[in-house]
Amino acid sequence: MARLIRTAQRILLCNSSKSLLHGGVRSPAVASTSFVQSRSYASEVISKSPFEANILRILRNEIQYQSEYAPPHHPAAKFNSFTVQDRPGEQYITMRGKYGDNEDIKIDVTMFDGCAYVPKPGEDSTGEDVHLHISLLVDISKGQDREELEFLCSAWPDSLEIQKVYFLRREKMIAGPYMGPNFRDLNVKLQKTLREYLEARGVNDELSVFLHEYMKNKDRIELIQWLSTVKSFVEK
């Protein structure tokens, strides 16, 4: 999975999505702490160097700001027919579903891993909008066979695109297998049919919209947890 995700990332137009999520909404310095808060830090200042005390103050202010600016909510556990398995501390999630009696669907989804710049809509508009990108690996298997049809997809804010289609035999993987052409090189009718194949299984534009909202929330959860982890380390 990781190898194919990295392949998808090399296709992307830029790698600055994290700065868009955090750098673009960074606060000015959070208001100075209250007298009561200052007293709670007094004993700490005695045991910590001025440099460490300053780091802790900045970390606390940042955690407070990030928690109050847009408080994260509890991640959704389901979307339509799919169950959602969050992976705290990791950069992806897994979704699982079924289609009919014998098809199992597994979707591995990255957090934001790139972006594209597109013209702003409207005849009088100038400048560009930034569309964040998410990579998906959609595995469709049938019964107990180790054969899978796998789709490498791009999820944009309001649309889903297929990049590659693989046919895999998990128990008979060979070195250097032929993995098929780029999706856009396929016959137009075949492209349309494969899109409809995925759409029938719930892998569609609606899923892209859900994933962008989900990952915005996960991104904030992971940031706050990372800040708290760093703070705990410095406090030791």
From TrEMBL:
- Stored Gene3D superfamilies: Mitochondrial glycoprotein
SUPFAM superfamilies per the UniProt record, alphabetical: Mitochondrial glycoprotein MAM33-like (SSF54529)
Task: List cellular component terms (GO).
Answer: mitochondrial matrix
Name the domain of life: Eukaryota
Q: Which InterPro entries does the record associate with it? A: MAM33, MAM33_sf
Pfam families reported in the protein's UniProt record: MAM33
Mind telling me which PANTHER family this protein's record contains? COMPLEMENT COMPONENT 1, MITOCHONDRIAL GLYCOPROTEIN FAMILY PROTEIN
> What name has this protein been given in UniProt?
Mitochondrial glycoprotein
